[in-house]
Amino acid sequence: MAPPGLNSKDPVDIPAFAQTQLALLAAELEAEIAETSTLVGAHSPTALQRAGVAVTNLVVNAQRTGFGGKTVLELGPDAATSSSSSSSGAELPEHGIRTGDIVIVAEQPAGSAKKREVRELERKGAKGVVTRVARGWISVALDEEREDIAGGLGGGNGRVWIVKLADDVTYKRMNGTMGKLQRMSEAELSVFIRVLFGLSSPSPVPADLVADPEWAGIEWVDPSLNESQKDAIRFALASSEIALIHGPPGTGKTHTLIELILQMLKRGLRILVCGPSNISVDNIVERLSPHKVPMVRLGHPARLLPSVLNHSLDVLTQTSEAGAIVKDVRAEMDAKQASVRKARNAKDRRVIYGELKELRKEYRERERKCVSNLVAGSKVVLATLHGAGGFQLRNEAFDVVIIDEASQALEAQCWVALLSAKKAVCAGDHLQLPPTIKSLNSKSSTSKAKWSKNKAEGEEEEAGAVKTKGKENGATLETTLFDRLLALHGPAIKRMLTTQYRMHEKIMRFPSDELYDAKLVAAEAVKDRLLRDLPYDVETTDDTTEPLIFIDTQGGDFPERNEDDDDNSSAAAAKKPMRGRLHGESKSNEMEAALVRQHVRALVEAGIRPEDIAVVTPYNAQLAILAPLKETFPGIELGSVDGFQGREKEAVIVSLVRSNADGEVGFLGEKRRLNVAMTRPKRSLTVIGDSETVKRGSKFLSRWMSFLEDNADLRYPDVSSLTS
Ligand SMILES: Nc1ncnc2c1ncn2[C@@H]1O[C@H](COP(=O)(O)OP(=O)(O)OP(=O)(O)O)[C@@H](O)[C@H]1O
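That is the input. Now the predicted structure with adenosine-5'-triphosphate docked in place:
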């Protein structure tokens, strides 16, 4: 059998595969925890707040019962430290805590207390999820009952702070799932699981589905689907165990999945729909909603889009008829909670706490019943992949699991959902970026797993994450289920969507020819759209009538700069200013940034709205240099290539940054990153870079540079014309 996790046509040894995944996941979590610990251990609360991982000087304003009977704390600025005179109108300082973050609420250490350990914080404080972030307060739903929390933290004039933590829930779910796979006996392996590991071949699907009478007569809910979409749906319906829907950029992958779900419902199937992120799942809920599908969305309401809340399981538990009794108990709990403060002495308080405990038990039982009734009655259940591992689905079985953005999910994450089904449909594009694998700079002395820098992709930090790969027996977390299944069973288990509804034909040409077998076709409505044709006043200029522009900085006048200060010892790293550390060993190019500014200005002067323009670059340090553009042109978007995956804009400027005498291209060497960068625009792509440096990076880059030289509006900038 094949070594687990490698791209291979050979069957996979399941226990060995699970073992490898467990080791890789352990290393990944350790790296994530170590990252938080290093930050918290080495910096003052104020510096942590500046770095976006803490909020200081808070007090507990209120305590109430939230969804799931959880204790919710409302935290506001401490009047004594807030700049505003009245505490009620005070605003929180700038901070980076967002709804859905996992945080610890703890007593704030005195200014002089230097050494802090995350474990110590976890022991003393209370862990929870941020449920709302407003200008003047933050609310946190605590994981555990902490009856003393308000008294211990807020009541005694104690000042508290909150610190963001690594999200270990996701890892626990993946570990649990891998453990289950590891322990499965031969007899327990379903045909579905056997096919997914190559122990059996997929059942054959009729070769010509269009001619097949069973599938030819489908009544489409949306008859305007294109042929490749219809073919993918027929294929997914006809397959018995696995179907991959390959959706290149802008080809209507989600659109196709919606029709597929509706068709499956018509056939009486029960479906679990998952994606790696909340936003990927909410996107589907929003688009299914108009079809009046009986569905529930699992997940913490704090993490869901407001528009999908009325399908949220937690909300339905409160609002449905069955939820009415649950709600009554909750009101009683709130009243009891409020009476604690009025209690005259400790004895009375103990009595109230005792009653509260009973009520909470009753609440949980009623809620659990209500939840299982709601889930059991739903033909479509939607959750993030790790959300599918929650207690709500423990005894639920589905006919099909549909995974959107499957090429952006860790394989272990997919299995959390896959274990409850008999068939899977995975949609994604393995030619865009795989999931981000987080880690420290592989120098963590505590990390037992081997982390090796990926030399082929260079050694610098990319915008978004440190690009290192955890490797174990040659397997990496970066090998997704999508990749592995394609390698295992070949293209016969896949259908590709081929009409794209985003890019001008000229923008699409190179990625289509290079990566998608020249199969992409630009839809009539988009193929010759120019910036000039936007539905508002745009001047006709060279920039608004040309979809593909290449500003070539070759010649050595636009050199890159290395942000690294060469000293990476942990002592030096700890002393480094936080901003510098967060940019790591990133690269920047000041002169190229000036060209970006010049081009943005030209577009805006021609009438293009800043909100229709995005600048993307692979490098954090370049993003930092470009940041002031947001002040000059509010509405413009600046982003890392990795962060912009899944997004689109009318005009996109790509700043390649690299320009050196050695032909070093680092992260640009990754085709999938380049593919994401060049497929974001609808009407205008402007590439700014040094063709001499870039073309030496790889054959792919060399062909791209030649393509741009032959096809783009080629410009050679004059350094003397630049005003920064
Ligand atoms: N058959 C179709 N006819 C007309 N427009 C379509 C069709 N299919 C998809 N589109 C349009 O194409 C755009 C992209 O569709 P969708 O959001 O489903 O894409 P996606 O493939 O999920 O996105 P991405 O390419 O970012 O993964 C949408 O505006 C959608 O309305």
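Residues 224-226, 229, 247, 249-255, 501, 646 surround adenosine-5'-triphosphate (CB under 6 Å).
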